[in-house]
Write a structure and sequence with these properties.
Layout lengths: L4 E8 L2 E7 L9 H9 L7 E6 L8 E7 L4 E2 L3 H15 L3 E6 L2 E7 L5 E4 L25 E2 L7 E2 L2 E4 L3 E6 L9 H9 L9 E9 L2 E8 L3 E3 L3 H13 L6 E6 L2 E7 L5 E5 L2 E8 L6 E3 L6
Bound molecules: the ligand N[C@@H](CCC[C@H](N)C(=O)O)C(=O)O.
């Protein structure tokens, strides 16, 4: 067995997260190890946030994001809040600058314990999302599921928050839609060459909406931070809301602000569950014993 790496099992509004401490190591969390950890009910997770030593000048850490199917993700809002909480407990710092494959982002823990993450700028170009074919206006694209003459979900807004998102607008309760059935079909639809996160959104006020998300590479989750950002910017962009909204996901509310400088800032909680050590090559793991640092 390789030298074990420390991890903390955490969650961001029920989005199951493992924060893996890969600092000072040359190895990476392998896809097979992620799949093994996800299959174990005790360590079941939606994303692993692997925290590495910094690669770029002016950043504190490089963070890799791994979905439960072993694929890589470019953004994970709830996971970033968990990383901030884990690091702030260790370092007594409250601000961090991270590098991810999607770029550099900064994050801050507030005195009330809530954490804000600057999720960067949304991208609306069809090649940036990416889509398989040209759509000049990505506020609403032609795509539907269900019977041709009576689609269940149709005409989503599409956007990249570093990762690809499609947001389907509905009038009623988001829980009445069979996302477990339609999510995988839409995630793998040929219009999304890199797959997509699929969200159903119901705007309830100029500053509020409820969403549910089928995550690319992880399936149905209780929360998806980048999807909350994607839904918020898409709602503002289509005139449904203003630029500051409370997005309620199954796990609870997230505050999303699309600032005038085009950056999207997400604020919400993070929660520690337990710690352990694992083998990044195989996913074998052991729980940290109480009282052992
Ligand atoms: N849970 C995340 C999003 C995770 C990444 C996603 N599954 C993808 O592959 O794009 C969040 O909180 O943003």
């Amino acid at each position: 067995m390789a030298e074990l790496a420390q991890f903390a099992k955490m969650n961001g509004l029920g989005n199951e997260i493992i924060v893996a401490d890969m600092r000072g190591r040359a190895d990476r969390v392998l896809p097979g190890a992620a799949v093994a950890l996800a299959a174990d009910p005790a360590t079941r997770f939606d994303q692993i946030m692997a925290v590495h030593d910094p690669r770029a000048l002016g950043t504190d850490y490089y963070v890799e994001i791994i979905n439960s199917d072993g694929s890589m993700a470019q953004a994970c809002g709830n996971g970033m809040r968990c990383v901030v909480q884990a690091l702030s407990a260790e370092t007594e710092r409250s601000r961090f600058i991270f590098e991810t494959v999607a770029g550099v982002l900064d994050a801050e823990e507030h005195t009330d314990g809530l954490i804000s993450v600057d999720m960067g700028r949304p991208r609306f170009g069809w090649q940036e999302i990416p889509l398989a074919e040209e759509f000049r206006d990505t506020r609403m694209i032609e795509l539907q599921v269900g019977p041709i003459d009576a689609p269940v979900l149709h005409s989503p807004s599409v956007v990249s928050m570093g990762n690809p998102h499609a947001v389907f607008w509905v009038d009623g309760n988001v829980n009445t839609y069979d996302l477990e059935r339609f999510g995988p079909l839409l995630e793998h639809h040929p219009i999304f060459p890199e797959r997509a996160n699929i969200t159903i959104a119901h705007v309830t006020a100029r500053d509020a909406m409820t969403i549910r998300t089928w995550e690319r590479g992880a399936g149905l989750t209780r929360a998806c931070g980048s999807a909350a950002c994607a839904a918020a910017v898409s709602a503002a962009r289509t005139g449904r809301t203003g630029r500051q909204v409370t997005v309620t996901v199954p796990g609870g509310p997230l505050d999303i602000l699309w600032r005038e400088d085009d950056h999207v800032v997400m604020t919400g909680p993070a929660e520690w569950e337990f710690s352990g050590r694992f083998d990044p090559a195989t996913g074998e793991w052991e729980r940290e014993k109480e009282g052992v640092a």
